[in-house]
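// run 5 | inverse folding | seed 20
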């Protein structure tokens, strides 16, 4: 963390300018070299491991600092997920298909829910109604927070939809999307 704390590092454009992937890679290059010297392990080869953004860093570090790392293992690393290479909607297409695969009925219900929530929010007492339905502790001021919350829930569920029980973001059973779609209400998706 440049300047030792998040508060300092996020202060202004000058301090923020150190929070780049290039700087992160340069930091790792210095760190790995320094650590090897401290451990009297200069002759030891280094292999980089990373997942997600860390996987992107591992890949780029192997490319940019081949004299420091002999290899990199990148897992779930979206190294080509950039606007001019992969269409921005690709992630959501994949996430949507994870739900569609389990139930096209549920997929369509979720798809229709965005407009339904916005419409409800515009009604008199609509935000209060939504607050009650979703059991929020505080009354919603707009539907934005609710839509973001649902977006996160669906997106993260798709990212951790492993075919076996796992404890990545949180403990979840195998096929968590199926679990959510089939057990969220006794009527399934016929909301
Ligand atoms: C290497 O040792 C020096 C001196 O003890 C220390 O200041 C530095 O933080 C160490 N570097 C790493 C990467 O452990
Ligand atoms: C809604 O707005 C009020 C007043 O601005 C604020 O105190 C409250 O925390 C807001 N509620 C939510 C859920 O953000």
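// decoded
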């Amino acid at each position: 963390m440049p300047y030792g704390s998040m508060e300092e590092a996020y202060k202004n454009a000058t301090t923020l300018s150190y929070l780049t992937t290039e700087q992160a890679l340069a930091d790792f290059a210095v760190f790995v070299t320094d650590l090897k010297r401290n451990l009297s392990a200069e002759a030891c080869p280094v292999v980089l491991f990373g997942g997600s953004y860390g996987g992107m860093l591992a890949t780029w570090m192997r490319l940019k600092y081949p004299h420091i790392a002999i290899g990199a293992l990148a897992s779930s690393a979206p190294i080509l997920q950039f606007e001019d290479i992969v269409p921005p909607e690709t992630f959501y297409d994949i996430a949507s298909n994870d739900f569609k695969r389990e139930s096209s009925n549920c997929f369509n219900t979720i798809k229709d829910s965005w407009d339904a929530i916005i419409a409800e929010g515009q009604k008199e007492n609509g935000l209060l109604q939504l607050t009650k339905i979703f059991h929020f502790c505080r009354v919603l001021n707009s539907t934005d927070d609710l839509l973001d919350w649902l977006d996160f829930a669906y997106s993260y569920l798709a990212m951790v939809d492993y075919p076996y029980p796992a404890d990545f973001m949180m403990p979840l059973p195998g096929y968590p999307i199926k679990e959510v779609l089939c057990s969220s209400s006794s009527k399934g998706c016929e909301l």
